């Protein structure tokens, strides 16, 4: 249950992104700066944490060992992911971005065949096999996504087709980019770095992407305003630091079990609930209707199924090992 609990708290802090990004959009801030400033602020914050833990040198060694892979997967996992989220926020409200983002629950599960695992043959030799999609876990994910769709359906019909597409397509790309970049970096690090080190390394490796994006922003929309800088700093702390570390810590605990990994990633469906609460409290959004509450119930049922199924798998595996 510990990975699930960490995932839920990560979802809470991740929800700050959607609420504040919507606040910045309402205040006239551009999505380019909402995305770039977050990661610029994250570098010194993470560096302080890692230096205080006296293990910064290992990060530099890993970055120097495989700089191309670090830059590639960090740009995908952080750059493409968050750039897409912020771009989508320019065309749709926070609740729609948060709701559509739940596609990552399914995309994360569908990525399983891109990775390999070791299996013991009967003769004692090791076989490298491609991982399979855990279809039962995927069915629970579909239930969660169905709940999110129902919860937001009445709102979505009020959005124009153009806005919906410009909001949906970037999030669809982000939904695959985030788990792909995260998992690829797990493979590259192979347990040599802890969560703080890996997040710092990925943030540093994604900086070239943010520098290019910020240069584009400077010449197209100008420099960001004071309010956007402050709100971006808050996002960096709550979502970029606290939520990311909690989520990565949760995925690290279950990285070798695709079913449990899917369960942890499914906890991120709660982002829509936390984001909706945040918008109601701070942006004067309307309370959800009975239809939305029905969708919330489906999401929670899907979460329960994920947890029960994962716990059952752990119990069965432990029993087999004990015998």
TrEMBL record:
Pfam families: EmrE (PF13536)
Keyword Transmembrane helix: yes
Alphabetic keyword roster: Membrane, Transmembrane, Transmembrane helix
Top-rank taxon, per record: Bacteria
InterPro entries given in the database record: EmrE (IPR032713)
Residue ranges crossing the lipid bilayer per the database entry: 31-52, 72-92, 98-116, 137-153, 159-178, 199-223, 229-250, 262-285, 291-309
Name of this protein: Multidrug resistance efflux transporter family protein
Organism: Niallia alba
């Amino acid at each position: 249950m510990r990975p699930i609990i960490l995932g839920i708290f990560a979802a809470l802090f991740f929800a700050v992104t959607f609420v504040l990004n919507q606040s910045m959009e309402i205040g006239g801030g551009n999505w380019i700066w909402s995305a770039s400033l977050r990661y610029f602020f994250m570098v010194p914050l993470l560096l302080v944490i890692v230096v205080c833990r006296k293990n910064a040198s290992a990060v530099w060694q890993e970055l120097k060992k495989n700089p191309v892979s670090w830059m590639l997967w960090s740009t995908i996992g952080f750059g493409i992911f968050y750039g897409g989220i912020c771009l989508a926020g320019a065309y749709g409200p926070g609740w729609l971005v948060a709701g559509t983002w739940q596609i990552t629950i399914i995309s994360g599960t569908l990525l399983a065949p891109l990775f390999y695992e070791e299996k013991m043959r009967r003769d004692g030799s090791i076989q490298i096999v491609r991982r399979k999609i855990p279809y039962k876990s995927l069915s629970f994910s579909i239930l969660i996504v169905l709940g999110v769709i129902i919860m937001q359906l009445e709102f979505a019909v009020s959005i124009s087709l153009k806005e919906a597409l410009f909001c949906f397509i970037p999030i669809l790309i982000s939904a695959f980019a985030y788990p792909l970049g995260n998992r690829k970096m797990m493979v590259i690090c192979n347990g040599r770095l802890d969560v703080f080190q890996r997040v710092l390394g990925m943030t540093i490796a994604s900086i070239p992407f943010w520098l290019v994006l910020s240069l584009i922003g400077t010449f197209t929309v100008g420099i960001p305003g004071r309010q956007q800088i402050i709100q971006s700093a808050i996002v960096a702390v709550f979502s970029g630091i606290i939520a990311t570390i909690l989520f990565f810590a949760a995925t690290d605990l279950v990285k070798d079990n695709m079913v449990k990994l899917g369960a942890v990633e499914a906890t991120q469906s709660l982002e829509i609930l936390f984001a909706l609460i945040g918008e109601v409290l701070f942006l004067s959004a309307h309370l959800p209707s009975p239809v939305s509450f029905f969708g919330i119930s489906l999401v929670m049922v899907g979460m329960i199924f994920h947890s029960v199924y994962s716990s059952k798998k752990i119990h069965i595996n432990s029993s087999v090992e004990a015998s």
